[in-house]
């Protein structure tokens, strides 16, 4: 009875089928509006985020921006005021504060439902401000000031700032729509960069206790440069703490980068010097402040020739053979044509431009030969007498000191002007600067608690993603450098292939049983109606496979017989001349 053909799948087809299955499970199909962009949604392994609670009893200011996103352009104005002012010292076309602000998620979302304030525009003046909670000002008394906020330079930063200003209580901050660069502030804090100049500003405006004048005091620079926040496009946490004992601490991502005292680490100093130079004092005409003078008794040596040049022609050099003395290095360009608009009266007589002489290209050299210059061994230069100590030296002159009429001593610079609002006033060459989680309080633990619910979760998520990506790159590199042996790769796919092949055999067995069961005996042609039209081709393949299986069994039996014969004889057996070997050769030839 003719065997029914059973489908056989090649290893390549099995690999393609398994790969398609894996891709299907890892990339579920979405339809229509259900499609979700991976770039606009947080990663699946993101930390669980909940908007932190604002407690006016513990905070003077707290802003997470999460509830200011509702699709409306004016939603931000529920708590923030966009400036309508103009700069006084700028041209009309650039004087307006017309920068664009928006509340939105980061370009690469990290936490679900986490939003921030984004400066969308660049190369424009932008200003926005918000009053403190319950309009309760922060007064510098017996508790520290803690300022903390996040910045994400999503497009990097080449020139511009991302600092904030703590606006002072007073008439200048009553109408925040008029907030501009001259609006009085108490503290300015945050990063700034232009070119290679990188800064982390901490500036406070100090009020002179005698005359009321205000001077900006700039904190000394930290030791280490802060380059990463301007180029890594990640969120960074900036924290400033000022204490009643006049000490301060600046942290970036919870790491202390600068600390010191308001009294000693600022320029200009908070307190002026007790004495100053007398502006009326003048240096006497006979004051000799020359520490050394030329030796008046020294004389120039007789053999000192000041006329000797520093270099002379090399006396040992000789003109190379083949040098063309009578040929000019440059010759007029014979192909040049006088311009039509050339005016001899205005431009002078026209002459063709000079070009390198073609005759000199293959020659050693052309024109007048000159020996190369070498240092002159007799050169000494201009003679000068040696210097000796000045016996009349009176020291460096300095004006006398007098008491400073503007002297004062402020031992509590911590007591600054009270703060009424938070303002952001920038001009930047980068767009999409994201501000988030601005906090002002008088307790470090409150700020740390807020950071633990926001910034720290972002860092954990980003670090986990970076670790997973690094591990995946390592796995891929290892697989590329050390690929699995071919038989192992076949085993990985072959296991599933064998199972499917077994299923195919069992189904074909059932089909054969059905073909011979109810009707007693069915012809091969009637059974073949259940298969494709290429029945003959499949039968031929099946017959060839069965023949190969039979030949393999015969080969195994003959090899076993040969081994038994070899084991029964003391003499070694040459497999090439053995009967089994000849039979194997014949069968292989017949198979071919």
From TrEMBL:
One of its GO terms (cellular component) is endoplasmic reticulum membrane. The lineage of its organism: Eukaryota, Metazoa, Ecdysozoa, Arthropoda, Hexapoda. GO terms for molecular function: calcium ion binding; unfolded protein binding. The keyword Nucleotide-binding does not apply. Residues 532-567 have a biased composition (Acidic residues). GO terms for biological process: ERAD pathway; protein folding. It comes from the Eukaryota. The keyword Chaperone applies. It comes from Anopheles merus (Mosquito). Disulfide bonds join 159-194. Residues 513-531 have a biased composition (Low complexity). This is Calnexin. Residues 1-32 form the signal peptide. It is a single-pass type I membrane protein. Transmembrane segments: none annotated. Residues 280-303, 466-487 have a biased composition (Basic and acidic residues). Calcium-binding protein that interacts with newly synthesized monoglucosylated glycoproteins in the endoplasmic reticulum. It may act in assisting protein assembly and/or in the retention within the ER of unassembled protein subunits. It seems to play a major role in the quality control apparatus of the ER by the retention of incorrectly folded proteins. Required for embryogenesis and larval development under heat and ER stress conditions. May be important for germ cell development. Involved in neuronal necrotic cell death. Keywords: Chaperone, Disulfide bond, Endoplasmic reticulum, Membrane, Signal, Transmembrane, Transmembrane helix. Residues 263-322, 466-592 are annotated as: Disordered.
């Amino acid at each position: 009875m003719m065997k029914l053909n059973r489908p056989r799948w090649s290893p390549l087809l099995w690999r393609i089928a398994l790969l398609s299955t894996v891709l299907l499970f890892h990339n579920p199909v979405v339809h229509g509006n259900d499609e979700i962009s991976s770039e606009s949604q947080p990663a699946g392994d993101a930390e669980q985020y909940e908007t932190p609670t604002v407690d006016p009893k513990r905070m003077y200011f707290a802003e997470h921006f999460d509830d200011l996103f509702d699709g409306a352009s004016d939603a931000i104005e529920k708590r923030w005021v966009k400036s309508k002012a103009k700069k006084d010292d700028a041209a009309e076309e650039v004087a307006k504060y017309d920068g664009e602000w928006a509340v939105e998620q980061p370009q690469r979302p990290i936490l679900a439902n986490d939003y921030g304030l984004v400066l969308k525009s660049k190369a424009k003046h932008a200003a926005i401000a918000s009053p403190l909670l319950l309009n309760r000002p922060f007064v510098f008394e017996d508790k520290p000031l803690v300022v903390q906020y996040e910045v994400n330079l999503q497009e990097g930063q080449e020139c511009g700032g991302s600092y904030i200003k703590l606006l002072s209580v007073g008439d200048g901050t009553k109408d925040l729509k008029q907030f501009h660069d001259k609006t009085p502030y108490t503290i300015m804090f945050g990063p700034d960069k232009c070119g290679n100049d990188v800064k982390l500003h901490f500036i406070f405006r100090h009020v002179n206790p005698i005359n009321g004048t205000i001077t900006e005091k700039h904190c000394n620079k930290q030791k280490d440069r802060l380059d990463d926040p301007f180029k890594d496009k990640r969120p960074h946490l900036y924290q400033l703490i000022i204490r009643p004992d006049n000490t301060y601490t600046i942290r970036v991502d919870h790491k202390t980068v600068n600390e010191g005292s308001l009294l000693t680490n600022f320029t200009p100093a908070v307190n002026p010097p007790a004495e100053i130079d007398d502006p009326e004092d003048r240096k006497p005409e006979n004051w000799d402040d020359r520490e050394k003078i030329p030796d008046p008794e020294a004389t120039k040596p007789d053999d000192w020739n000041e006329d000797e040049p520093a270099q002379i022609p090399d006396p040992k050099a000789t003109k190379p053979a083949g040098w063309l003395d009578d040929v000019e290095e440059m010759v007029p360009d014979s192909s040049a044509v006088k311009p039509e608009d050339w005016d001899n009266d205005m431009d002078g007589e026209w002459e063709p431009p000079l070009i390198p002489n073609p005759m000199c290209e293959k020659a050693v050299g052309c024109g007048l030969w000159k020996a190369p210059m070498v240092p002159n061994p007799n050169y000494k230069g201009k003679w000068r007498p040696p210097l000796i100590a000045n016996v009349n030296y009176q020291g460096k002159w300095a004006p006398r000191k007098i008491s400073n009429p503007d002297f004062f001593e402020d031992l509590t610079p911590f007591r600054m002007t009270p703060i009424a609002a938070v303002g952001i006033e920038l001009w930047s060459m980068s767009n999409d600067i994201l501000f988030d989680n601005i906090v002002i309080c008088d307790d470090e633990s409150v700020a740390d608690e807020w950071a633990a619910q926001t910034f720290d979760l972002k860092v954990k998520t980003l670090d986990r993603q970076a670790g997973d990506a690094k591990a995946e790159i390592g796995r891929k590199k290892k697989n590329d450098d050390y690929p699995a042996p071919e038989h192992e790769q076949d085993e990985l796919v072959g296991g599933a292939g064998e199972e499917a092949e077994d299923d195919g055999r069992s189904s074909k067995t059932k089909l054969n049983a059905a073909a011979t069961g109810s009707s007693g005996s069915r012809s091969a042609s009637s059974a073949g109606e259940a298969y494709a039209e290429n029945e003959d081709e499949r039968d031929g393949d099946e017959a060839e496979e069965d023949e190969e299986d039979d030949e393999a069994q015969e080969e195994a039996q003959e090899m076993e017989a040969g081994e038994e014969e070899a084991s029964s004889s003391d003499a070694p057996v040459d497999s090439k001349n053995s009967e089994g070997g000849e039979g194997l050769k014949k069968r292989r030839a017949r198979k071919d």
